From TrEMBL:
Localization, UniProt: Cell membrane
Taxonomic source organism: Mycobacterium intermedium
GO CC terms: plasma membrane
Major localisation: membrane
UniProt keyword list: Cell membrane, Membrane, Transmembrane, Transmembrane helix
Protein name per its UniProtKB record: ATP synthase subunit I
Membrane topology per record: Multi-pass membrane protein
InterPro entries listed in its UniProt record: ATP_synth_I
Annotated TM spans: 20-39, 45-64, 85-103, 109-130
Any Pfam family the entry gives: ATP-synt_I
């Protein structure tokens, strides 16, 4: 008998999250953005773009830390994870919007940097999983019982 999705415990599988590689790629993308915007006389946009990439990396590191803290508890709950995610995303978004508003129109580069970092993060996380699934060797490894989160 199978468990309905809403009753199943939340389990976080091991994920290929490599922050140093993300930092290096983000720095490279920021350098290209600075070059292109500098050639167009809009260097500030490139700088704010890099700041957005940095905010995205900060968010990803905070996600990793919060998942580790919450799953380390004896009885972790989905509601704790949801509240943590919502508050973290709200703070990052408010910071980015304030920067974009104060330094408009160049400050909008922060929003573009955040958006591109999220695409980069998803690609760097999903591609190794996709390759492993295509090779026919599914990842059987999970966080384990300490990685299960209850609905309470």
């Amino acid at each position: 008998m199978t468990t309905p999705a809403q009753d199943a415990p939340l389990v976080f599988p091991s994920v290929a999250f490599r922050p140093v590689l993300l930092l290096v790629i983000s720095a490279g993308v920021t350098a290209v953005a600075l070059l292109l915007t500098g050639l167009n006389g809009q260097l500030k946009i490139g700088a704010f773009f890099g700041l957005g990439m940095l905010l995205g990396l900060l968010n990803a590191l905070l996600v990793r830390r919060s998942v580790a803290n919450i799953t380390a508890k004896d009885h972790p709950m989905k509601s704790t994870m949801a509240l943590n995610s919502a508050s973290r995303l709200a703070v990052i978004t408010v910071i980015a919007l304030v920067i974009a508003f104060i330094f408009r129109p160049s400050g909008l580069g922060v929003m573009f940097g955040l958006a591109l970092f999220q695409v980069l993060l998803v690609a760097m996380t999903a591609l190794p999983v996709w390759k492993k699934l295509r090779s026919g060797q599914p990842e059987a490894e999970a966080v384990g019982t300490e990685g299960r989160i209850s609905d309470e």
